[in-house]
Structure formats: structure tokens, C-alpha cells
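ENTRY TYPE: protein
CONTENTS: sequence, C-alpha cells:
***
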Amino acid sequence: MQLTHQDHYFQQKHFPLTMVCDNLTGPANIGALFRIAEAFGVQEIRFCGARPPVFSSPRMKKTARAADKYVSYTYTGDTLQTLELLKTEGYSIISLEITDQSIPVSRFDFASFHKIALVIGNESSGVSPEIIQASDHAIHIEMFGNNSSMNVIQATGIALYEITRQIKPLPTPETL
């Protein structure tokens, strides 16, 4: 029998994981990001870029299915400044982008990092070159067809699955 949203058997977990969005603008993608971030126990989302996201968009709200109420988020205009701040807070910056130096997500050792900031990019142009340059690492999803890219949220879901499979969740009152 299919379970309802209220009747699930999943243990809630939160991970030392922050999402950084480099110019993500589409309302459906923003809503889907909230939904997938909440599902994978992401601590927070930091939206960055010249144009602030419209968090009140009906399309964003419909796609998020109220997950935006459970995931902390902020907006700042400068992605590079956000990454510099996260580095001072002990985060390792990992961009999700295909580059000549990127490592397949399936072969990357996420468990060796204490706190991770996963950078995702714009729907059309991806993570900007200066942000990739400022990152500690770049990872990509291996694809086996003719296409060289996938939707940013689909790629994020694959990456979050692998990251949360490898790293330890934050302690909760029940585990202390």
C-alpha cells in the first residue's frame, strides 16, 4: 500500500550541508529545490545572483509543496562573497558542474569533509566560471546518452543522494 505524506517510515536527519544557488531563477526549479533540499535534510539554501528569486510565485509555491517552510534560506547578490563567507565558516565548496577537472559524483569522497556547500548554477549557463574557480572541487553526473546536461534539479537530486549516503548526519537530541 502506498503511504501518505503523513504516514512514512523515514527517520528525519539533517546534514552539515548548505546549497548555494548561483543565479538560479526559474520558479519551478526554485520550488523543486526547496522540496528536494527538505527531503535530503539540507540545512539551508543561499540564493545568490543579480536577480532575487520570487519566493511568492504561485508556480514556486505549488512546486515546493510547503517545503519552503522547513528549509532556511537567504538571498544575497554576490555569489563569490557568499562562498568566501562559507569558507571562513569551515565549509568546503563543491560546484556541481561538468569541467575539464570535475570528478564524477559516484567517485568523489564526500565523507572526508566536515561541512559541504554544494553550488548549483543557472538553468541555462550553469555555474559561472569565476565561481567554479573559487570552488575547492567540481563534481559532475556521468551521463551515457548523447545529451551533455540535465535539469539542474535532477542533477542536484542525484548529487544530494550520493552526498547524504556518504556523510554523517548532524546529531539530534535523540542521538546525543
In short: The mean pLDDT is 94. The CA atoms of residues 169 and 175 lie 10 Å apart. The chain is about 30% helix and 20% strand. The first helix runs from residue 27 to 39.
